[in-house]
Design brief:
It is a single chain. The chain is of the alpha/beta class. It folds into two domains: about 1-150, Alpha/beta knot; about 185-250, Trp Operon Repressor, Chain A (Orthogonal Bundle). Helix content is about 30%, strand content about 15%. It is built from seven helices and nine strands; from the N terminus they run βαβββαβαββααββαα. The protein has helices at about 20-25, 65-75, 95-105, 140-150, 165-170, 200-220, 230-245, and strands spanning about 1-5, 30-35, 50, 60, 85-95, 105-110, 130, 185, 190. It has a five-stranded parallel beta sheet, with helices on both faces. The relative contact order is 0.12. The structure holds adenine. The site of adenine has 13 residues, from β5. Adenine binds next to β5.
Length: about 250
């Protein structure tokens, strides 16, 4: 997959896109990440990419002309013009399903927003406007990296066998079950006996139940689209009513 990013801060991508799994995927030719400085498509001495909003109001707006010129040039770099994603807090909420959809594209062109946002006419260049969550960052660069990371790890060969996402599809739509590693006893806290039993069927059943309980407690809205057996629905309902009575005791992780 090729990911092209059009940004006024190409340097922000250098570290995060060079190390660990993403860095390795690039070295192995499974992923190509290229940044393009939006200012290269400005024509004034100050290389201006923003301007004041029509109608007044605070902040600055990203000018349309450099974005149109940049997209025109960057999209032409390959036969495939790519799927163009603008990063903005007003976009569609990013989630794992969208990550999976995007991972099937040969080429993405990501355009992080800065300032108060894009001139509305520039958004006509976007195939999709994406938000990574209901909070406002100083720009769309971190969101562009989040999207690249979430998509890249789904590409064939990027994760090793040990880290593969097959377990994820099994627990589709649920939070992860609790994990433990050695030592078996640490500061009076024991690893659950079942995980040391060597009984793979019991372990799988325990993990599944823990995932259902944790999801019911922390993110009950996710259960609507998870596929649960009737028995698992009962377990979830049980956990939701326990959570309601525990909530009276005050705030916790759960
Ligand atoms: N730019 C600023 N905040 C953002 C967010 N939450 N998602 C995408 N782009 C952004």
């Amino acid at each position: 997959m090729i990911v092209d990013i059009v940004t006024i801060f190409p340097q922000m991508f250098e570290g995060p896109m060079s190390v660990s799994i993403i860095g390795l995927a690039r070295e192995r030719g499974l992923l190509e990440v290229r940044t393009h400085d939006l200012r290269d498509w400005t024509h004034d001495r100050h290389r201006t990419t923003d301007d004041t909003p029509y109608g007044g109001g605070p902040g600055m707006v990203m000018k349309p002309e450099p974005l149109f010129e940049a997209l025109d040039a960057v999209q032409r770099l390959e036969d495939d013009p790519g799927f163009v994603v603008f990063l903005t807090p007003s976009g569609r909420p990013f989630d794992q399903r969208l990550a999976r959809d995007l991972s099937s594209k040969e080429r993405l062109v990501l355009v992080p927003g800065r300032y108060e946002g894009f001139d509305e006419r520039a958004l006509s260049l976007a195939d999709l406007e994406l938000s990574i969550g209901d909070y406002v960052l100083t720009g769309g660069e971190l969101p562009a990296m989040v999207v690249t990371d979430a998509v890249a790890r789904l590409l064939p060969g990027v994760l090793g066998d040990d880290e593969s996402s097959t377990e994820e599809s099994f627990s589709e739509g649920l939070l992860e079950y609790p994990q433990y590693t050695r030592p078996a006893r640490f500061r009076d806290m024991d690893v659950p006996e079942v995980l040391r039993s060597g009984d793979h069927a019991r372990i799988a059943a325990w993990r599944r139940e823990q995932a259902v309980r944790r999801t019911a407690r922390r993110r009950p809205e996710l259960l609507a689209s998870a596929s649960l057996t009737a028995e698992e629905r009962n377990v979830a309902d049980d956990e939701i009513s326990r959570a309601a009575s525990d909530a009276q005791e005050g705030p916790t992780n759960d």
